Amino acid sequence: MADAASRLRGILEQLLGAPFPVRVRTWDGSEAGPPEAPVLVVRNRRALRRLLFKPGELGLARAWVAGDLTIEGDLYTALDRLAGSVWERDEDTRTLPQSLRDPEFRSAVRRLLAMAGPPLPPAPPPEEVRRPRRGLHTKGSDKRAISHHYDVGNEFYEIVLGPSMVYSCAYWPAPPPEGTLEQAQHDKLDLVARKLALRPGQRLLDVGCGWGSMAIHAAREHGVSVVGITLSQEQAAYARKRIAEEGLTDRVEIRVQDYRDVADGPYDAISSIGMAEHVGSERYLEYTTVLHRLLKPGGRLLNHQIARRPHRDEESYRVDDFIDAYVFPDGELAPLGTTVTLLERAGFEVRDVESIREHYALTLRRWVANLEADWARAVALTGPGRARVWQLYMAASALAFERNRIGVNQVVAVRTPESGASGMPLRARVWGAPGPA
């Protein structure tokens, strides 16, 4: 009788209708597949039951998070090869009911059922968010979603993000990409400040302020007063401690506050860095309208946001199963054109759009390296499941940015007054030098 690895590989190729792109090792120690390829390690039969009861991305994710599946060899190469054969098949027009009408497909499913053992669906890993899909993006649901993602321990984020504690795309020198993550994050924050033309005496609202890095940078290096808002209690506590240590408590206020509750405008400038992905399509016009109201006439908004590629049929868009269940509950990505349109509908004049897609791939690879270099401590802080969620999420995201499946853009928009005086330079890429702090 063939070993488990050879049998499983044969079944997978029958299901996919194509060669399986990586080597396979199964629980009996057997291996099959190209010897030079990364190895997909199937540690137990439970991994097969997860795939049977949740075919596609979510079943694979559950098996990965639970430790039923792992990869030996280069993680990026393995994920890149699997993406074309497995994950991207979820976007195929052929549905599971259509597949089940194929005798060869049905035969492979029966063989996989026999190999998987007793047909009991394993419970999802405890890291999976389980909640009804109704009532998205209320103040309460947004607060719960933000807490799930960010309130996992500041020490864990220190491992991943490094001393800068900036959880968004860094801005690397080019070419080639050199320097440290900390310097690249400093350069990104300064790029935002220069695009906003921050100068002493102004008021900045930092929406989704994270651990306070942009607020500190703006106050310390550009002399502005800052209000930073977040829904995460842990982020707010950490940011306030950093601000006190910097001696900036007279210039920076951190609030645990929903953007819909900010009522002390107008502000001279607003930064929204990695925040808009949490807002949701049904709330996005409300979001841009609130930001427009909070800006003084002539004030600038810098919106730094991940974008997906548009679908031919936008009604077919659905949130990625793994991201929604394990990483960003209720998060949504929008095409760049949609974002620009909704900013304009709110009354903004969009003046500049800069894509920094490649920069995010470089940033994510540094974060993965940070996590893997201190893996034992990360696991001790958050548990193995959570650490594996982050490893998979960041590595897969790096590949998505590299392959142009998603992008990230900085949009500069102005609340242009009726006079039409936008205050922008005639050459859009010549950003005004800020005054001394």
Automatic annotation (TrEMBL):
Keyword vocabulary terms for this entry: Lipid metabolism, Methyltransferase, S-adenosyl-L-methionine, Transferase
Gene3D superfamilies: Vaccinia Virus protein VP39 (3.40.50.150)
Domain of life of the source: Bacteria
SMART domains reported for this sequence: PKS_MT
Protein name, entry field: Cyclopropane-fatty-acyl-phospholipid synthase family protein
Homology family: Belongs to the CFA/CMAS family.
Domain Polyketide synthase-like methyltransferase: 156-373
Keyword Ion transport recorded: no
Location of region: Disordered: 116-143
Taxonomic source organism: Streptomyces tunisiensis
